[in-house]
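Researcher: We are triaging several targets before committing to wet-lab work. For this one, the compound of interest is S-adenosylmethionine. I'm pasting the protein sequence and the ligand SMILES. What I need is the predicted three-dimensional arrangement of the protein with the ligand bound, expressed as structure tokens, so it can go straight into our comparison scripts without reformatting.
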Amino acid sequence: MRKILIKKNPDDLDVSCTIICDDSRQALRDLKGQVDLIVTSPPYADARRRHYDSVHPDDFAQWFLTFHEPFYEALRPTGSLVINIKDRVVNGVRHRYVWHMIEALCENGWHAIDDYLWHKTNPMPGYWPTRLRDGWEYCFHLAKDKKPFFNPEAVKVPIGDWAETRLSNLGENDLSRHNSVNASGFGRDVSRWVGKETVLPSNVITSAVVGKNKQHPAVFPVDLPLFFIKLLSPEHGLIVDPFGGSGSTAVAALSENRNCILIDNNEQYCQVAVERVSKETGAKESQDEAGAWGQIRYKQNGSIYQPRLLESGAIATEVENHQ
Ligand SMILES: C[S@@+](CC[C@H](N)C(=O)[O-])C[C@H]1O[C@@H](n2cnc3c(N)ncnc32)[C@H](O)[C@@H]1O
């Protein structure tokens, strides 16, 4: 057992992260109706076989459906599910297991709210006879309701330099709604942008692929869950990553003042996540599930770890560390 003591500061932010080593289909049973957002990246079909179980592309949609009910039941009525995934090439052509998975989920009651893309600024170099470098992955936004919790204000971006020149020279067509000349039904009123400093981003999220230094073979960038956590969950809400891996989602959740539960069925990755979350967020491990402070418990089965986020200035002292 490892034991870490901290001095409790009454100003500590009241958010925590629980890391559960278990099959997420089991672990989620205890969370019925409590989760604001599930944001995750499942094992891709037939990938990383050396590291964890993988599923043949032909069987993937059926396999993923075994998570449908636990996910659906765990979410609040306004909750969302974001799945980062990519299809793969089988015998020279794209296998559409990802599309089949989304169709199967929608047949089971999920609403496909939008398809986001993760644009990778540093895709893997290489040469393929019929394809170019793979520079993006899907992030599917699904929800129980057609109007899930949605806070676009939280992800707005600076309007950009174009606005200064464009908006200082407004023409006649800019001062009222100007309909498209090809009668497409689209129109714009540029004058409404005057005085605005931020705008909505597009549904393409640009972020570099993470290097190989996180002790896990398939780490996604923290920016990815971060974007969806801001957009799709309330402050102090509960975020779950049911394929938690190295803990990227927890790093994002704690930094945005959300509670987080990471679930991974691989003991080693749970340990990696505990260490990473503590290191990258300043969280300290607390005593038990009831929230008492002081020690981390380590159990072989259904292991539960609870790093706690400390507000800066909180005093955290490691006084003991033993096996
Ligand atoms: C693609 S990785 C996730 C990586 C993570 N997004 C990160 O940034 O580190 C998928 C993870 O799912 C875990 N996993 C696979 N099947 C699982 C299951 N049934 N329950 C819980 N975790 C599972 C694997 O051990 C693996 O760590």
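Researcher: Any quick observations?
Model: The pocket of S-adenosylmethionine is lined by residues 23-24, 41-43, 52, 216, 218-220, 242-243, 245-246, 248, 263-266, 269 (CB under 6 Å).
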